[in-house]
Amino acid sequence: MQKLSFDHEPSPSEVLRALADWAETYPSDKYMAGELFDRLHLKLCTLLGKPAAQYVPSGKMAQMMALKVHASRTGSSRVALHPRSHMEEYEARAYHELWGLSAVQLGGYDRLPTARDLDAIKERLGAIVLELPLRRLGCLLPRWDDLRALADLARERGIAVHLDGARLWESQPFYQRPLAEIAALFDSVYVAFDKGLGGLAGGALAGERSLLDETAIWQRRAGGRALRSFPNLLAALKGLDERLPLMPEFHRKAVQLARSFSQIPDLSVSPDPPHANAFYVSLRGDRARAAQARDGAAAETGLWLFDDLVDSVDQSLVRFEVTIRGAGLSVDEDTASAALRRFQALIS
């Protein structure tokens, strides 16, 4: 069975064999130190143009550490977040329940935040968080000038600017600018090693050395210093070498599929064209029949279109996400369109 989105799931033995072949003679790490850490941090600093980088075993931990330090430095525990951000919708308000921060809404529910939205917030803020791309809006990205204007206004007001860059790698083709130029707009940058890079888990913070010196103590307090991290480190390095160069190809494939899908009557894609390697497909139909229709289309065409639906205010819409990674690169446009047409017929 072919998959349209994400990657085909390898077995643990396949993953470990591939890492073993790639590991060469690197020595093991111990409590956040060793050659693998040094190599990863140097690579990240070079790519992102930041003086320092810090591996963190969890993305949630990494971002909360950064926001905690920004709040301490600015004297305000209040941060500005988009209402559809990952921190609001997927993390059970960890910023408040565990880290003692509070949040104010930045931007409208169904659009990206702007400098005007920040200007409308008159209270003191410790940081703003920008998620690039904003996945819950279809992996939407702001125009470069709008992004710069928002970051510049925050800096003028003495507000730290943090990037939730879990999909920063996938965003770079949209801007056609070096990763370091994008990262330069932010005081702290989080990047992920799973998702597009296909790693096992974990991510990293990048920023000024003094900032990461302060976040390191929060990583210790949060239990983020494992005795051994080499499987995740090796997978991260392997992903940066092998998968990072594929990001433009992922984006091109997403654009090609979206163009093909948009030719189907009574169906829309958003954004059109896709900004990153992902987009939403929306069509009229019965949401209650979607799972059965997905399974039926897969049985007939051999293509698995999606796992779960995406929620929509319009209950007459059936919506799902397409995310192009390793699996989707090999999917023929005609096959994908045929599967989607069959799915559409089955939910009508």
Q: Could you say what the CATH architecture of the largest domain is?
A: 3-Layer(aba) Sandwich
Strand content: 15-25%
Number of strands: 12
Counted by DSSP, the helix tally is 15
Tell me the helix content: 40-55%
Strand line-up across the major sheet: 2-8-7-6-5-3-4
| CATH fold-level topology of the largest domain | Aspartate Aminotransferase, domain 2
Structural class: alpha/beta
Please describe the structure with a list of short key phrases separated by commas or semicolons.
348 residues; alpha/beta; Aspartate Aminotransferase, domain 2; 2 domains; three-stranded antiparallel sheet; 15 helices; 12 strands; 16% strand
Report on the architecture of this protein.
With 348 residues, this protein is an alpha/beta fold. It folds into two domains: 31-242, Aspartate Aminotransferase, domain 2 (3-Layer(aba) Sandwich); 246-347, Aspartate Aminotransferase, domain 1 (Alpha-Beta Complex). It has helices at residues 12-23, 35-48, 59-74, 86-89, 94-97, 115-119, 144-156, 168-175, 179-183, 209-221, 230-242, 247-261, 290-301, 326-329, 333-347, and strands at residues 2-3, 52-56, 78-81, 102-105, 127-131, 160-165, 188-192, 203-207, 267-270, 278-284, 303-304, 317-323. The longest helix has 16 residues, at 59-74. The chain has a seven-stranded mixed sheet with strand order 2-8-7-6-5-3-4, sandwiched between helices. The two termini are 24 Å apart. The mean pLDDT is 96. The protein is globular, with a radius of gyration of 21 Å. It contains 15 helices and twelve strands.
